[in-house]
Design a protein that fits this description.
By secondary structure, this protein is of the alpha/beta class. It contains 9 helices and 8 strands. An 8-stranded mixed beta sheet has the order 3-2-1-4-7-6-8-5, sandwiched between helices.
Amino acid sequence: MKISIIIPVFNEKQQLPELLERLLVVTAYGHEIIIVDGGSTEKYEPVDSVPGLKMLTAEKGRARQMNVGALHAEGEIFWFIHADSGFLYPLESYLRSLTELSERQWGRFNVRLDGNRRVYRLIEWMMNWRSSLSGIATGDQGIFVHRQLFNEAGCFSDIAIMEDIDLCKKLKKFSSPVIKKRCLTTSSRRWEQGGVLRTIFLMWKMRVLFFFGWDPDKLVKMYD
């Protein structure tokens, strides 16, 4: 099965080249990479001449950007990852696990923060445990979904934030997620810049407010 790796970006000039260097191997296996820029002010290197790699533009907002990527994707499986994602294992092993989807047809990976502090091991354990318990994944965990199920679920809702949680809630109506034990890494800069306890409290507060129906436009202002 062909996999479309869809990456929304906004001013990710520093992170994107390193990620692409790791990802380009997928094109040798017949898969594709789709980068969707949400109006960055930074200039990226041209990628039009790279086989299997597309650079698209969309209105800013991860939901809109990922929906545009899915609209132009040729693969049977969509794999949504962030520009600061990384891999602890050979990329080929992730690709094999994606092509071995069960009848549940969607899922996510475990996540590992790239910081070395012990508290990050606790945070990532809590993130993976909470996701396993609830069946709800975040974008950092690399959500993957079969094209047909993605379309049946209604794609990403056009909201400013929590689009990943909203999609998972819709996908759960069809089945529980497949959980891949291999880890994706993600940047710990959010906790480093905002402070560990303050960031944990903010994330939980936003999830609770979203659960009770708060406007995502208000939540994104809180996040920013």
